[in-house]
Amino acid sequence: MMQKLINGADKLGVHLADEQAEQLLRYSELLLEWNDKVNLTAIKEPSDVLTKHFLDSLSIFKTGLIKPCDKVIDVGTGAGFPGLVMKIAAPSLKLTLLDSLEKRLNFLRAVCDELGIADVSFVHSRAEDAGKDPSFREKYDIAAARAVANMSTLSEYLLPFVKVGGRCLALKGPLADEELEAAEKAVKILGGKVENTVSAEIPYTELKHRIVVIKKVKPCPKAYPRKAGLPSKQPLV
Fold first, then answer.
1. Mind listing the pLDDT tens digit for each residue in 57-87?
2. N or C end of the chain: smaller count of CB under 10 Å?
3. Which residues lie closer than 8 Å to 30 by C-beta, 6 or more apart?
4. How many CA atoms lie within 13 A of 56 on its CB side?
5. Would you call 33 helix, strand, or coil by DSSP?
């Protein structure tokens, strides 16, 4: 398993030392142990955790935009994907994990404690509320998300967190281009500009990702994000 993980990461352009691979394997064990009492993932096989969670998350490095010491926020992190996997692969990142469910953050705290991972902040909040908070608004180089919402809604979740010049990175499936077409107006209103989409095939699987890259080109208007629930119920189109 360890060699498969290291080789799979190599295929994505990510070098994992043995220690980092061991951390990920222990993370997998903790995920499946906690999953019996807290619903964290529908994926139950260790080999599938390796490919569909870990290598899937590492595909974000294919963008070439993540730099040492970047401030990164993972919005709607769930069980830590992609944010905590990114942090293990690039330990100098200054990571914030945001989720609306405290039980998920409790799991992530336990993982970080056991693996000795420092420089991670945990924020229990909805994205719409945290995006209005001066402590988090326009403070990050990178805002990342995986499988959270359609691009119109996701743009309203992510762009308020990013500094001008920073980027939103969204791990999407093969329908990314269609979503982007519908989200064009939302991205512009929120101060963003679609830079490109990066294709990534997940090793050992049939999965093909499109990673949407949105650059923050001007400050997000104060009216956004709207109050909790509105971005998903009434996406900007």
1. 999 999 999 999 999 999 999 999 999 999 9
2. C
3. 107, 110, 111, 114
4. 22
5. helix
Tokens at residue 176, please?
Answer: 């990314």
Residues 6+ apart with CB under 8 A from 66: 60, 72, 86, 90, 93, 142
| Residue ranges making up the domain that contains 65 | 2-233
pLDDT at 229: 93
The pTM is what?
0.96
CATH number of the domain within which 121 lies? 3.40.50.150
Q: Can you tell me the distance from the alpha carbon of 123 to that of 55, in angstroms, rounded to the nearest whole number?
A: 25
Number of domains in the chain: 1
pLDDT at 90 over 90: yes
Non-local CB neighbours of 176 within 8 Å, separated by 6+ positions: 151, 170, 197, 210, 212
The values of phi and psi at residue 183, to 5°, are -95, 0
CA distance 120 to 123: 10
